[in-house]
Design brief:
Strand order of the largest sheet: 2-3-4
Oligomer: single chain
Order of helices and strands: EEEEE
Strand content: 25-35%
Helix content: under 10%
Amino acid sequence: MAEPVEAVTKDTVFTIYPRVYGSGGDGFVLYEDDFETFAYEEGRQNKVVLKVDAAGQVQCERTGEEAVRYIFEKGSCPWF
């Protein structure tokens, strides 16, 4: 879940509130791009992998060198 925004621009940053129901499965990948171009087709994007560990905690790993477009609710990922 994320807070709603009126319009997405090149400067938009979403705050994500991850919630896990059940076992969490294998997790998922969230891709970050520039919101404007097709540069992601050339690999210019970040990958954010979210998984649930054995203790039920959300684990996040971001790779890539593009601008951060998604931040996570305080305490929901180890970055905070």
